[in-house]
């Protein structure tokens, strides 16, 4: 069943008078800085409520066995060491473009699985190799990128004649659209924190090279400039939504990852290794960013009514409509989509523009990072439950909802065939069918 069929599934599939199927509610919000969920008698590998991958019910499950088999087939070797997993396995041998490379963002869930399975070495190797790639000089045509930019992906180039293997990184110079990744550096810091928490090994994060790598990433995103917002400016195609989808500006995904990476770096940076100034900048940025996101990106039924009644062209500090959002820009679908109970972070907020679309990754990461309040976290889960048929249906959760269609799709995506309605990023599910 494809996404369109899932979305349009009718109630005729259910017995008359039967209650609408709902997912089980198992919600537990844990502060990212708290270890209270970890019994002192256990290791720091997981919370007490988290199943271990080594438990019998996992080992004997056919789906889990198949998943691990596929994951291990995707492992990439470099000079005898595991350094990551390729983005996709293609048994049919078709043109894979760059899906045969190790993507930083794509490897993160693989790395977490290996860490949960007490196999940390591949994650450590990946962190060190990408750190080495960060240090090389980066050029796109005749322009030099910032020193701290992490690659979007890398591949192993084998020269049989010389018997030499080389890592070739892509910083955007060969990517479709020629855009450098904004999120790779954030994922790297988050994964370094995950490795440290899972293994209890502090030596990796305390290496001078790792400390310097974090500071280079933070120098790029914490530098002061012309922006009047604590959020981070991001162009189209610079994140998981890696094609033109109208997410330019301040997409929720980047802001949530930014917040999470700052919290992780705050825990990893060493004062005695030159991290003091960066810790001060983080402590200044975090409350401003959380206030901004919780105040201006949050949307629920009450806030929707407030926006509907906004006055425009307000001036001075007393303005209520601070971003001059035009009430007429509220899309019609939103009034049916927004339940009385529930809410979410909208896709984007910038002057005279509010992207009301639902983006799964940004909202889920916001919960994991405690960017949301407890009440907002519960409201996001309430929204998913209330709009289960739209956001999930018979498929994995949609990356974005709703899909851009017709003339709007042509304008926003540039007629990109990869982003036709209900496919790929445009209302589709990732991984795709």
TrEMBL record:
<dbReference type="InterPro" id="IPR012341">
    <property type="entry name" value="6hp_glycosidase-like_sf"/>
</dbReference>
<protein>
    <recommendedName>
        <fullName>Alkaline/neutral invertase</fullName>
        <ecNumber>3.2.1.26</ecNumber>
    </recommendedName>
</protein>
<comment type="similarity">
    <text>Belongs to the glycosyl hydrolase 100 family.</text>
</comment>
<dbReference type="InterPro" id="IPR008928">
    <property type="entry name" value="6-hairpin_glycosidase_sf"/>
</dbReference>
<dbReference type="GO" id="GO:0004575">
    <property type="term" value="F:sucrose alpha-glucosidase activity"/>
</dbReference>
<comment type="function">
    <text>Invertase that cleaves sucrose into glucose and fructose.</text>
</comment>
<keyword id="KW-0326">Glycosidase</keyword>
<dbReference type="Pfam" id="PF12899">
    <property type="entry name" value="Glyco_hydro_100"/>
</dbReference>
<keyword id="KW-0378">Hydrolase</keyword>
<dbReference type="InterPro" id="IPR024746">
    <property type="entry name" value="Glyco_hydro_100"/>
</dbReference>
<feature type="region of interest" description="Disordered">
    <location>
        <begin position="1"/>
        <end position="23"/>
    </location>
</feature>
<keyword id="KW-0119">Carbohydrate metabolism</keyword>
<dbReference type="GO" id="GO:0005987">
    <property type="term" value="P:sucrose catabolic process"/>
</dbReference>
<dbReference type="GO" id="GO:0033926">
    <property type="term" value="F:endo-alpha-N-acetylgalactosaminidase activity"/>
</dbReference>
């Amino acid at each position: 069943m494809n996404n369109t069929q899932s979305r349009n599934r009718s109630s005729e599939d259910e017995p008359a008078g039967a209650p609408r199927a709902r997912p089980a509610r198992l919600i537990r919000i844990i502060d990212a800085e708290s270890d209270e969920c970890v019994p002192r008698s256990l290791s720091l590998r997981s919370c007490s409520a988290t199943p271990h991958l080594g438990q019998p019910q996992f080992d004997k499950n056919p789906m889990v066995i198949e998943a691990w088999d596929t994951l291990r087939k995707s492992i990439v070797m470099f000079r005898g060491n595991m350094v990551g997993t390729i983005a996709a396995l293609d048994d049919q041998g078709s043109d894979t473009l760059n899906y045969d490379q190790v993507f930083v963002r794509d490897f993160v869930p693989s790395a977490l699985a290996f860490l949960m399975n007490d196999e940390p070495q591949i994650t450590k190797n990946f962190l060190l190799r990408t750190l080495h790639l960060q240090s090389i000089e980066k050029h796109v045509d005749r322009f030099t990128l910032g020193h701290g930019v992490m690659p979007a992906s890398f591949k192993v180039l084998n020269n049989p004649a010389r018997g030499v293997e080389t890592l070739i990184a892509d910083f955007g110079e060969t990517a479709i659209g020629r855009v450098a990744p904004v999120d790779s550096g954030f994922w790297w810091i988050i994964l370094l924190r995950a490795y440290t928490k899972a293994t209890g090994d502090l030596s990796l994060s305390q290496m001078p090279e790792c400390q310097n790598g974090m500071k280079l990433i933070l120098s790029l995103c914490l530098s002061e400039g012309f922006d009047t917002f604590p959020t981070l400016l991001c162009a189209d195609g610079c994140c998981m939504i890696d094609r033109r989808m109208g997410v330019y500006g301040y997409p929720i995904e980047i802001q949530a990852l930014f917040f999470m990476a700052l919290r992780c770096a705050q825990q990893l940076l060493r004062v005695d290794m030159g991290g003091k100034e960066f810790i001060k900048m983080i402590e200044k940025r975090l409350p401003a960013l959380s206030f901004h996101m919780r105040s201006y990106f949050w949307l629920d039924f009450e806030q929707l009514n407030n926006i509907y009644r906004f006055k425009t062209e307000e001036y001075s500090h007393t303005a209520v409509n601070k971003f001059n959002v035009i009430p007429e820009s509220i899309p019609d679908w939103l009034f049916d989509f927004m339940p009385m109970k529930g809410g979410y972070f909208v896709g984007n907020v910038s002057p005279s523009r509010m992207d009301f679309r639902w983006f799964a990754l940004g909202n889920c990461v916001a919960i994991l990072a405690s960017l949301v309040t407890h009440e907002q976290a519960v409201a996001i889960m309430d929204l998913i439950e209330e709009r289960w048929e739209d956001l999930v249906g018979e498929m994995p959760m949609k990356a974005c909802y709703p899909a851009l269609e017709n003339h709007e799709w042509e304008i926003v995506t540039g007629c990109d065939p990869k982003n036709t309605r209900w496919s790929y990023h445009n209302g589709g599910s990732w991984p795709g069918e």
